[in-house]
Amino acid sequence: MANTEEGRLLTRAQRGDLVAYEELVRMHQLRVFAHCYRLVGNAAEAEDLVSETFLRAFQHLQSLRADPSIIHWLLRVANNLGISVIRKRGTQPMVDLEEVGERPSETPTPEEELLRSARRDVVRACLDQLPVKERAAVLMFYLEERPLEEIAKVLGCGLAGAKSRVHRARHKLRALVMAELGEDLPFGQEKGADYEDATN
Amino acid sequence: MKMRRTDTFEQELRDPELAALLREVYADDPALDESTGRTERIMRRVLTTGVRPAPAPWLAWGWATGLAAAAAVVVMLLLGALNGPKTDLVKDDQPASAPKEQVVPQRAAPLLADQPLPAPRDTVKAPVEQPRRAWLRPNPPKQHEPAPEPPVLAADPAPPTEPTVVAAALYTAGSAAQTVGDYEMAYEAYSASYETMPNPETLLAASDALLLMARDTTGSGG
Question: Between chain A and chain B, how many beta carbons pairs sit less than 8 Å apart?
Answer without folding.
Answer: 132
